[in-house]
Amino acid sequence: xxxxxxxxxxxxxxxxxxxHLLKELEVLREDVAGDTKSTAxxxxxxxxxxxxxxxxxxxxxxxxxxxxxxxxxKIDTSINVTSASFGALIExxxxxFFISVGIGQLNFEGTNVFCIGQDAPISKFLFGKxxxxxxxxxxxxxxxxxx
Length: 147
What we know:
Blueprint: H1 3-34, H2 42-73, E1 89-92, E2 95-99, E3 104-108, E4 111-116, H3 121-126, E5 132-136, E6 139-146
Parallel strand pairs: 2-4
Antiparallel strand pairs: 1-2, 1-6, 3-4, 5-6
């Protein structure tokens, strides 16, 4: 599996999420701008308040995605790593792990890759380890390749 292509794929995925959230935010703001005071009174104010809460939720998600983008941009794919660290792609008997940002499973070129953050328990366990066999949660974890 090519780490450089995976890195680009992850960046593209995060940029798509960012664009989707920006569009969602735009729609919410247009809804408020196009909303005129109705005779409904309290119902109108409740709708505006709910819209405001939804905007805050989307802004929070947008901030998270932008932080993730900034982290992934810091990964230097030209560096050849031999032990698990930030930016490492790990092939194991439990699948592929990309220590980058915690967005979960990505289907990359027909293969599932788990994008895990540095603070994930498995990341903390893997940090500094090279290829070999280890015990993780009472299961055998075999690291075949790290790049």
